[in-house]
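re: ur question from the group chat, yeah i did fold both. here u go
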Amino acid sequence: NGTTITEASFVEVYADIWKSCFTPSPPIADAIQTMLDTSGLQPGNYVSAHLRLLYFKAERQSNMIEKFTRNAIHCASTLRPGRPIFLASDASYATQYGPTYGQQINATVIIHTPNPNPIVHIDRPDGIAVEPVALPEGSTRPPTWYRPPSDYYYTFIDLYLLSLGGCSFYGKGGYGYWAALIGGVNLKCSYKERIKKGLPENPCKFQPSPPGGMLLDDNTIQVHNNQQRRPPPFLEPMV
């Protein structure tokens, strides 16, 4: 009949494959749900923004962190004006500054303070915060690094909170993009920050809530009206 069948792309199938293979452990799932309940965030009805500021850097000056944080909030606001913004970052000062700046421009910026803070990277030990495990006297084995599994919970809590937003802003590194892939629908409404000479290449201007709180586009209205019919954010753990 002339119909052309094409294979689904990696991006199109990633979210479904992820949900079928992985689900948060009960402590992480409970923490995610608690955060959603206490913050008022509704899956699919907010904007997520991930700000990677310490990419191969130990620290940044506070004024530079503020500049990047403002731009992240501005760019996130252009995706869904007036919607809450969940902000996550590897720089603790960015998450401290974000809600304060949000108040100045009448934007709702919500953060999740990790414990330990700053958040622990899953790809490498933190040489400042991690102590080598004591070895028996006379041992020739090299020092090993250890953290209890609970120290890494917040890495995945933030990952899921980012993935559950209706739109995604993300920059350097793969963490924010990973969250968007897990979210699936996020990739229909996303903004990837590009850096030029150490600064955002295309700085954004803040988009306030539309007059009267009216929704701006059909896609936003559809997401809003379908809240009760959305699939659960993740499957129940197997027992």
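okk and heres the other one u asked abt
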Amino acid sequence: MDRAAYSSMSAQETDHWWFVARRAIIAHLIEKHVPLGEGAAILEAGCGTGGNLAMLASYGALDAFEYDADARAMAAGRGIGSIDAGALPGQIGFGEKAYDLIALLDVLEHIDDDTASLKSLGGRLRADGRMLVTVPAVPWLWSDHDTLHHHKRRYTRDGLGEVAVQAGLKVQAIGYFNSLLFPLAVMQRVAHQLTKSKAALDVRPSAPVNALLQTVFAAERHIVDHIRFPIGLSLYAVLSR
């Protein structure tokens, strides 16, 4: 991503509605779909500036790697887990250590070879381990926001599942989320197209709006396992060997 995007992310991850609500949903998915016992080994692949480290570390012993040196320094500065340099698909690091949970959270869309990356990470799962992947969804929603954040693609549910299967992984669960706010996002993108305005770096809206959006988005954690959303701004997949 652009350097400014990393700086913006680091500043926003604590209280911006999208980051806070997404963490709540990710935590729910882990608790629902990932069998973790005492002493679980956890890896975050592409930890960025470290906004998910505290949440993931609450489930076990955490390792994380990040390609970008500036983002990695910000993550290491949080003092959570073991942070190292790495890159997908071939530079995971941490010896040959295997993991109970590998989290790949809005990373796969940045990588040229997504199939090879999932295959490489799958090789580091324990026999009963799980990989939790989140990605941006709906290719026709491509906008300046994706360009700004150096995305290579947005996914469909079938497309993400196909990449996982091609990587030799089993799909335990898959679905859309950030669906309740989908109409608002579509209207925003249409407005940008009509006005030909450029996407700006994400900024936290006013406190009342931030709280409202966070409440709506985070509420999906209560229904994501019970309702098969037909569409959403994001996709999740729980994968196994």
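fwiw on the second one: The chain has a mean pLDDT of 92. Strands lie at 41-45, 61-66, 82-85, 99-105, 125-136, 170-177, 234-240. idk if thats what u expected
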